[in-house]
Design goal:
Radius of gyration: 17 Å
Number of strands: 9
Helix content: 25-40%
Structural class: alpha/beta
Shape: globular
Strand order of the largest sheet: 3-2-1-4-5-6-7
Bound molecules: 5-O-phosphono-beta-D-ribofuranosylamine
Largest sheet: 7 strands, mixed
């Protein structure tokens, strides 16, 4: 059942739960981490209202179907006009009564209409410690290949707000792992995914749901639990 049907409206127009839309393109390991955290009540007052995939064959779709979460495919191949893609995306997000958009392995750049409508309400997980190894073309194995090639001794993952540029919005959370001499890009990628991405993405969602994330001067300030009471949600 879509989240919107079971929540009803709170006075003042805010729903009792925070609805998140999760955008995917691939295997869905980050989506799985979000769904597992939600099932274990580790996300706080959150409902995953829809999963939107840019690829019809993404395994993330199967993962969402197993959890009975509504799925929509908006294929970048089939909807080649970016403005039409944005229009369809906005319509789907509005229908799902979305509060926060979570990019979990989503490989397309959202257009300006979506980014401005959801300013500081779209978060992305990137597999490096931004500002290292990020920007256009830096996705999948490439950030890890670059980290190995550069010989860095730590790498990790970053959750950040999305603006109109790749991997450029205010940073919410980061988590690091050591890079070992014997690491390959693949072994580093696996450690970053399991020890960093799948930990900080659910945590960032919980912090936002608890009104503990504020953006000032293009930087994120994380509030302690006691300071968040009464704060308006993003
Ligand atoms: C992950 O490494 C994530 O950092 C990047 O996309 C990759 C695949 O994610 N954004 P998933 O398995 O589809 O969640």
């Amino acid at each position: 059942m879509p989240c919107g049907d079971i929540l009803g409206e709170k006075p003042g127009g805010k729903r009792s739960k925070m609805n998140i839309a999760v955008l995917v393109s691939g295997g869905g390991t980050n989506l799985q981490a979000i769904m597992d955290a939600n099932r274990n009540n580790q996300l706080g007052n959150v409902c995953i209202s829809i999963v939107i995939s840019s690829k019809p064959d993404a395994y993330a779709i199967k993962r969402a179907e197993i959890e009975n979460i509504p799925v929509l495919v908006l294929s970048k191949k089939e909807i080649s006009d970016p403005r039409e893609y944005d229009r369809r995306m906005l319509s789907a997000l509005d229908r799902a009564q979305t509060d926060i958009v979570v990019l979990a392995g989503f490989l397309s750049l959202l257009g300006p209409d979506v980014v401005s409508r959801y300013e500081n309400r779209i978060i992305n997980i990137h597999p490096s410690l931004i500002p290292a190894f990020c920007g256009p073309g830096m996705y999948g194995i490439r950030p890890h290949q670059a980290a190995i090639d550069r010989g860095v001794k730590v790498s990790g993952a970053t959750v950040h707000f999305v603006n109109r540029n790749y991997d450029d919005g205010p940073i919410i959370l980061q988590k690091a792992v050591c890079v070992f001499n014997e690491d390959t890009p693949e072994s580093l990628q696996l450690r970053v995914m399991t020890e960093c991405e799948q930990v900080i993405l659910p945590k960032a969602i919980r912090l936002i749901a608890e009104n503990r994330v504020i953006v000032e001067n293009n930087k994120v300030i994380l509030l302690a639990e006691e300071d968040a009471a009464g704060k308006e949600r993003l």
